[in-house]
Amino acid sequence: MSSSLSDKPQERLTTRRTLRVLAFCLLLVIALSFVLSFQFVPSQITLQVGDVSDHDIRAPSRITYKSDIRTEEERQRAEVAVEEIYDPADATIARQQLDHVTQIFDYVDAVRHDVYATTETKIELIEAIAGLDLSPTSANDTVELDEDSWKRIVAEILNVLGNEVLRQEIRPYEVTELKNQVHTFISLDLPEDHAALVEAWVGNFVVPNSFPNREATEEARARALEAVEPVYVTFEEGEIIVREGEVTEPLAWEALGKLGLRQPQIEWRDIVVRILFTSLLIFILAVYLLYLHPTFWDNWREMLLVGVLAVLAILAARLMIPGHVVLGYLFPLAAISMLLTALVDTEIAILVTGLLSLIVGFIAGGSLEFVLYAFVGGVVSSLRLWRIERLNAFLWAGVYVGLSNLSVVLIFRILEQDHDILGTFQIAGASVANAVLGMSLTLGGFFLFSNVLNITTSLQLLELGRPTHPLLRELLVKAPGTYHHSLMVGNLAEQAAQTVGANPLLARVGAYYHDIGKMLRPYFFAENQTDGENPHDRLDPETSARIITSHVKDGLQLAKKHGLPREIRDLIPQHHGTAMSSYFYHRAREQAESGTMTHEERFRYPGPRPHSREAAILMLADEAEAASRANRPASVDEIEELVESLVRSRMDNGQLDESDLTLRDLQKIEETFVNVLQGIYHPRIKYPEDAQEGRGRKEEIGDRAEHSDRPRVSRKGRSGTRK
Asked: What per-residue confidence (pLDDT) applies to 716?
């Protein structure tokens, strides 16, 4: 193998390609950032909440939207409506209070029985008890009552506290109210003055025993908030949102935003974010194309198409998505995906679809639904149009897009807590209309861009591949041998291209037209010499070589005359590359006089060498078919040896260096050629009358295998030429 072929994947950034990459990325970042940052349909409404409107503002169309303001108001009402939750009464507090009361009364008894203290001193000692609040009268009665009356009062106090008051659930805010109700729990058998003393003492021991439970309250309020359904607001077309002279309320300001009537405020920070966001996405695109599709940067038509479609897609998204509920679902990103698939490449189309879907989600305010809605529809349509063989492929792609759109919409509608049936049907209808719109735009754009940018499409190739094409019919009539040779080469090239992931349709159709230049002088080529007459016998080797190699120039002229696309025209000179017509070169050297130089360049094809995988495959298929037809291999081993020698020869002389074929690709191509040729040149039973003739021609066939471009030797001993 030549070193240049093995090193080819490293040679991606030529100066010209680098400039194209930088220019493409810079222009696309600027264009997308501009589209994302600026308002293309300026609004005259710059009202803020609290501003007075100087004219009536009406809804331009009917709209139903979820009102964040109304929904928040309902949430606040629901939260306020949830009362604070308290724990049940704590019996421990009642017991502690009763123990505390018992201790206090033990102390009071001790004070009452102190024989050395005066009445005033006893009153002072009782009033000094911490937390005790007694009126002077109650304190005096406590000291002056006789023992029986006091014991009866203490018993009543403990009874009221233990059996009535402290057994209730007492919340902090209920303590005062309960103190005022103590008299209702006192026995009616007590005298009025004794009952008053009981009430005074009991009031000092009424304490809360039930307290707020914050966690339970927050959970209840959270459940109440979750139960609040979104509030939808509807404005009919022409309905006044803000009247002239009225103050702009928050609800009206919200409606102006939903209708897209509010003038957005542009800040430099937002512009910087958009530039960084688009730069990141374009960087991903550029690196992917540079390493996996490097030839993309050599095709300015594809670069222009990708750039223009990307900018148009984001511009349409800016106009259709913000401020519109249903219209956003009509945004036909799938049309961009289908156009790129049909005109550029499926893998590139899927990547661009993914990146544009992220930008669509950014425009929609970070909506995951819009990201998936755009991405799924675009990818499904690209995969469906992977190979376009009929126009109805666009129809089926539209059907797939519609089903994909509906699936995404239904998924997100099911996830919603509030099921708006009418809104769901509207969005579903827009999803189906999206598919129809995308299909229509794709058909129109397909014919528009393919003609304006002169891009070869699969439909054009299919049309060119029909046997009824005038140029192929002319080739069949004037050069039938070349015609059948081209058909065989087409089969080989198509199978090989399919194996290595190249364009099999381009390889096959290109093979049909690669030798059309032979129509001008068909009798100079061996496959068209049926009478054994060889005109090269009367010509010198240099003239013969000039005639043979001129079929490339003649083929290019015919291709341009008949309007063959550029991709087909490029295959005509590249399928020979800069190879040499070695038979005539060696013959010229044999006939040259001593000391006379034979100029090698006069015996070479003009080139260039194959620049694409399809051109390289066509070169190898052309050589393999011609050599197999000349040598008639009798076994699989002979076929394998023949194919391997041809591939190695083209690698060694550098003809494949610019084709982007890898060693693995060449191995697959060899295997494919062997399988196809094995079916053509399979071993046959040799009849007796053929055996002697076969032995007589063995030497001739071996010589032709070594020099496949030498003139054909007929059975009559005459010679002709193949190329």
From this structure: 36
- Architecture per CATH, domain 461-720, reads as Orthogonal Bundle (1.10)
**How far apart, in whole angstroms, are the C-alpha atoms of residue 564 and residue 562?**
6
Cα 165 to chain centroid, rounded: 71
Identical fold, 265-455 and 461-720: no
* Residue listed under structure tokens 């230049």: 517
DSSP 8-state class, residue 187? -
Q: How far apart are CA 460 and CA 389, in angstroms?
A: 10
Topology of domain 265-455, per CATH?
Answer: Arp2/3 complex 21 kDa subunit ARPC3 (1.10.1760)
What pLDDT is attached to residue 266? 67
Got the DSSP string for 326-350?
Answer: SGGGG--HHHHHHHHHHHT-HHHHH
Residue 349, class by beta-carbon neighbours within 10 Å (0-12 exposed, 13-18 middle, 19+ buried)? buried
The pTM of this model reads 0.59
Which residues have C-beta within 8 Å of that of residue 47, sequence separation ≥ 6?
53, 242, 248, 253, 256, 262
Residue 7's Cα: distance from chain center in Å?
33
pLDDT of the residue at 1? 39
Domain parsing of the chain, residue ranges: 50-64+234-263, 91-203, 265-455, 461-720
Say if CB 616 and CB 646 are below 8 A apart: no
User: CA–CA separation, 85 vs 89, rounded Å?
Assistant: 12
- How many CB atoms lie under 10 A from the CB of residue 370? 24
Q: How far apart are CA 611 and CA 618, in angstroms?
A: 12
